[in-house]
Amino acid sequence: MGFKILVPDAHLRDLAVERQVSKELFDYTVYDETSAHAIPESDWRDCDAVLLWHRMQIDKSVVEMLDNCKLIVRVGVGFDNVDINACRERHIPVSNVPNYGTTEVADHAVAMLLYLVRGLGTYERRLKADPVNGFVAENVPVVRRIRGATFGAIGMGRIGTAVARRVAALDMQVIYHDPLLPEGHELGLGFERVKTLEELLARADVVSLHVPLSSSTRGMVDDTFLDMCKDDSILINIARGGLVDINAVERALRSAKLAAVGLDVLPNEPPVPLPALLEAWRNEEPWLAGRLVVTPHSAFYSQAGYLDMRCFSAQILVDYLVHKTVRNNVNPGWQK
Asked: Which of the four CATH numbers 3.40.50.720, 3.30.360.10, 3.30.70.1150, 3.40.50.300 does domain 3-100+303-323 have?
């Protein structure tokens, strides 16, 4: 009998990829649920490890059932759906998979920016509606030259760095703010580091978010944040939906404080109930035309990236359960 691995919220019932990595070492129990209480308590209590996607919350009440659990692996980067403090108290390490999809997410952020500043959505709609009279370049919202414009990255980890490298190749000036990085980080990177968020927002023509979701960052993009932004700036969020107050973003777009916004992530996914901003976007209300692009938390996705994510998460299980090696731990202190 192998180790018992509980997969409570699998996107795919077919775990062929994971089974190939773990060989005959693991017995997988697979569910496609969003509520922990939809799964028999005995499965929580008996499992040796949990392989968790992003659709289920593992709160303290769930952690207290993990009598035999030795590891939780988040199949992805963000781990805000796991109570890591409760896991620390129960001496359960939590690991994530940070080394997949970085290039895809960075490409997606730049694609959103170019989609907006080159007016691709507006041009396409015009030509579809009228191939003759719509064959004009002028009078398109947001379209502008980005060479020489200032790109402000909030957070300069793997993805922030990958995005910064790409926009620098477009001849944008890159500045960043990240108080968690050591002094001198900017010297190795070659981009300008600013000391305060206020300075970044005042200078950036494009603001891009690259921070995890936590109690200190939840809702950070609010009315106060947006008031500090440079007039007519662009906001890109490919990080976590909970970072942004979407109603504040709507107000900033209506007032033209923000020129445009790109969102790959939303506070509620899927967006139910539908926020007023997305209702206006769906209805193609004229005031918003060409100023908003939304994608379904898909920045990470490519077939290659998806395969990496699944292989790497299974390998993390093998490395710890079989070889006692902890990788990518996000709740240090769990041993104590």
From this structure: 3.40.50.720
Name residue 29's beta-bridge partners: 6
Beta bridge partners of 253: none
Residue 264 pLDDT: 98
Question: How far apart, in Å, are the Cα atoms of 47 and each of 65, 300, 325?
Answer: 10, 29, 19
Closest C-alpha among 109, 21, 35, 30 to residue 313:
21
Q: Is the dihedral of CA 244, 85, 61, 96 positive or negative?
A: positive
Report the pLDDT value the prediction gives residue 55, as an integer from 0 to 100.
86
Instruction: Please give the Cα distance from 158 to 224 (Å, whole number).
Output: 28
Give the pLDDT confidence score for residue 1 in this predicted structure.
Answer: 54
Q: Which segments of the chain belong to CATH 3.40.50.720?
A: 3-100+303-323, 102-294
Q: What is the pLDDT of residues 199-228, one digit of tens each?
A: 999 999 999 999 999 889 999 999 999 999
Which of 3.40.50.2000, 3.40.50.720, 3.40.718.10, 3.30.930.10 is the CATH number of 102-294? 3.40.50.720
Residue 99 is predicted with a pLDDT of 86
Catalytic residue IDs: 240, 269, 297
Tell me how far apart the alpha carbons of residues 274 and 279 are, in angstroms, rounded to a whole number.
6
Residue with the two structure tokens 């292989």: 311
**Average pLDDT of 84-101?**
94
- The pLDDT assigned to 202 comes to 98
Rounded to an integer, the average pLDDT of 28-52 is 96
* Partners of residue 192 on adjacent β-strands: 175
